[in-house]
Amino acid sequence: MKTGIEKVLERVQVKTPEEIADCGAVIVCMRVSSGPPAVLSGKSICGRCGEEVWISPSTQEVIHVGAGNPVACLQCVMKELGVELAQ
Ligand SMILES: [Zn+2]
Fold first, then answer.
1. How many A from CA of 35 to the centre of ligand 1?
2. Is 87 a domain residue?
3. How far away, in angstroms, is 1 Cα from ligand 1 center?
4. How far is residue 17's CA from residue 59's CA, in Å, rounded to a whole number?
């Protein structure tokens, strides 16, 4: 069974950093403080709140090229969508 986060990451069609910046895509990641990752992951920083988040190695390669930080933790994304997360 895949987690919801994995499904979201699968749907993110990562191309080039420029394209990511242009389309305003957001890579949704789980906060490190929320628990261990479902798959082997590296760490990145939420571009909105600065919390440490888990990120898959393939995604990490793309975002370290310097086109801004499209990473956002699930909490920030939910807040922007107006959804309250049960803690
Ligand atoms: Zn955040």
1. 15
2. no
3. 26
4. 11
